[in-house]
Specification:
The structure is a homodimer. Chain A is of the alpha/beta class. Chain A has 13 helices and 15 strands. Chain A has 2 domains: 141 residues, Aspartate Aminotransferase, domain 1, CATH 3.90.1150; 254 residues, Aspartate Aminotransferase, domain 2. Chains A, B: Belongs to the class-I pyridoxal-phosphate-dependent aminotransferase family. LL-diaminopimelate aminotransferase subfamily.
Chain lengths: 409, 409
């Protein structure tokens, strides 16, 4: 008799974005003429840029000719892309990364979800609260988190609250933690850490032989000079940190699918006898066994982002979104809202007025302003009473949504 | 202190295809002028077909315009592709499959490797011997297989030998088995099961509440009428079988990346209390959490395979490869080799002459004929003394390789 993985039964029933979709659909059925503006799910609206489109066309044509056709590529990605990543994202900032330390993949969501597989099940994980749900759910499925308790949390996860009191910056854990998920610029709060702040985490990990799983999917949105774009800007991070990067938001690849993960060869985890093992080797084995590489035309497209034309085009798109972020942030402040984020990130995290619950505010915003956002409570217990808006809409919709918030809320 | 997943330490050191690459590279260094022909790794050589290329171009252009740009798609694939899959691969053969039972993915290797995640760790798995290594390795990593023993096998796996005596067709397991990996047409032996033979496996699974993980990646190569193309042609299979299908070999997508997996809603696995749970729901949760969908232009390309032009083009390619298979099979037989497969599959499984070991034959073939194949021992203990050749080369290279085998071996 085949047994099921019972860890899945611990997952809370409804996924955040499914519940949002359900409520929006119900509202649309009851109000078929409502003109709904979505600033909820973090999906981009700007199309792929001309240089990327041209490169994909060329790569597709290569695939149509026997002499240039590409079959199976290396699971970890083609060198032509990896070298461009290293030159542009790391070497240019004085960071050393080797070719065999970069793993190209089809997304940071898969990578952040899959990466826990190479760790033992007895590790204690820590996550910020609020947090991107995938870090938690993937560990629940693996059986690393224990029971879902009355507080809406898992018994064996260490939650690091991000609150108004600490300015949405988590404090170091007070109990033992082996795997630390950090995401900066943060989804959902839009907040960042300075170099000095991030250094405390690297130092903690070095002292405790912990691993930092650093999600830097939004680094391209950083505007301020003292905010690190890579955790490897911090001394010693190569010993303790894995970094996840994505082309999804940087270059509009949410539907095109390409990302990469950096696993320095120095990062070690340990067996029961205390022997050190390089995570790089384990991840290589995991990827070569359970993954088959990214589509060739997609890798060519990703490499083109690093051309002169590509860099200019994606910079224009990022500026477009960050102008939206500024509008939302400054608009909400002028309407009297308390807000976080939106300066170095495409997310704005607002405190709901009048102590409304996150879902109460969601319903009110939907009904009164016909605007969809994301309830903070969906990201964790400390997200209750907060709400996320994204800067990925069109300029026009962003302006219209703000006007409605001003006049109808 | 972060602990490593120690199950990885049980994996035998060198992966089959890495060892082949190592030996070929060494030979090339010592013989830089040798004209090596590769009939080893199962990668295709025919380019993407014109209809597929045109569809990808159109989809890329869509991605370049704001009004038709696609961001995040459904993790399980777009309905436009799923509906074409159902209509052409199932409904046309009288098989009922629902839209929410098809999960589009980036490959059958990932799917067959990942699918075990939704099962409990105490299940006993069975694999044929020889076998595609990914089924075994992914279960080793998860911790379902026990120790790697002196026989070169894992203690807790039930191996089902495919030998000359049983005509490369496995016999039903004699001890309890919960998860059964079957691949037909088989990689590496190239053999198939008839409907009656496959029915025994479905009946076994129904009696024992086991699950059959049925890898049908090579179904498009089936030529004979009494060979089932889908396990769902067998009565009751919808209760016990998951089927993996791929566009890799069917349409030359090894570098383009698209596949799909069928999980009927009736297939159940059980919790410790004996409650039934639908695998379909668990796989949906797994995919929505740990996967982010296939690149949009790739899904459009895959859908085009089902157009009239697409069907004709891929049929021509399959015929090309199957003509190679026939040449290899008939050539080897005429040279006095004992061979299996090559009739309904692009693989030819030959018995090594003079009781040579698989790797001895590999080295001899490389040195004397400058032809690369795959040692059967790399697929399991029962593969020792056998050798795999593939029909995915060009016609010219296939003919030249055969001529060399005739004259130099």
């Amino acid at each position: 008799m085949a047994l099921i993985n019972e860890n899945y039964l611990k997952l809370p029933g409804s996924y955040l974005f499914s519940e949002i979709a359900r409520r929006v659909n119900q509202f649309k059925q009851e109000n078929p003429d409502a003109d709904i503006i979505r600033l909820g799910i973090g999906d981009v609206t700007r199309p792929l840029t001309p240089a990327v489109i041209q490169a994909m066309h060329d790569a597709v044509d290569e695939m149509g000719r026997a002499e240039s056709f590409r079959g199976y590529g290396p699971e970890q990605g083609y060198d032509f892309l990896i070298q461009k990543i290293i030159d542009n994202d790391f070497t240019s900032r004085g960071i050393q990364v080797d070719v065999d330390e970069v793993f190209v993949s089809d997304g940071s969501k898969p990578d952040t979800a899959n990466f826990q597989e190479i760790f033992g099940l007895n590790n204690i994980i820590a996550v910020t609260d609020p947090v991107y749900p995938v870090y938690v759910d993937s560990n629940v499925m693996a059986g690393r988190t224990g029971r879902f308790n009355e507080k809406g949390q898992f018994d064996n996860i260490v939650y690091l609250p991000c609150t108004e009191a600490n300015g949405m910056k988590p404090e170091l854990p007070k109990t033992r933690v082996d795997m630390l998920y950090l995401c900066f610029p943060n989804n959902p709060t839009g907040m960042t850490l300075t170099r000095d702040e991030l250094k405390q985490w690297v130092d903690y990990a070095r002292e405790n032989k912990s691993i930092i799983l650093y999600d830097a999917a939004y680094e391209a949105f950083i505007q301020e000079a003292d905010i690190p774009r890579s955790i490897y800007e911090i001394e010693g991070a190569r010993e303790v940190a894995v970094e996840f990067r994505s082309f999804s938001k940087t270059a509009g690849f949410t539907g095109t699918r390409c990302a990469y993960t950096v696993v320095p060869k120095e990062v070690m985890a340990y067996d029961q006898d205390g022997n050190a093992h390089s995570l790089n080797k384990f991840w290589l084995r995991r990827q070569t066994t359970k993954f088959n590489g990214v589509s060739y035309p997609v890798q060519v497209a990703a490499a083109t982002i690093y051309s002169e034309a590509g860099q200019k085009e994606i910079r224009d798109n990022i500026n477009y979104y960050m102008e939206n972020a500024k509008m939302i942030r400054e608009g909400l402040i002028s309407f009297g809202y308390k807000v976080f984020g939106g300066v170095n990130a495409p997310y704005i995290w607002l405190k709901t007025p009048d102590n409304l619950g996150s879902w109460e505010f969601f319903d009110k915003l939907l009904k009164q302003a016909n605007v969809v956002g994301t309830p903070g409570a969906g990201f964790g217990a400390s997200g209750e009473g907060y709400f996320r808006l994204t800067a990925f809409g069109t300029r026009e919709n962003t302006a219209r949504a703000l006007e409605r918030i001003r006049t109808k809320m």
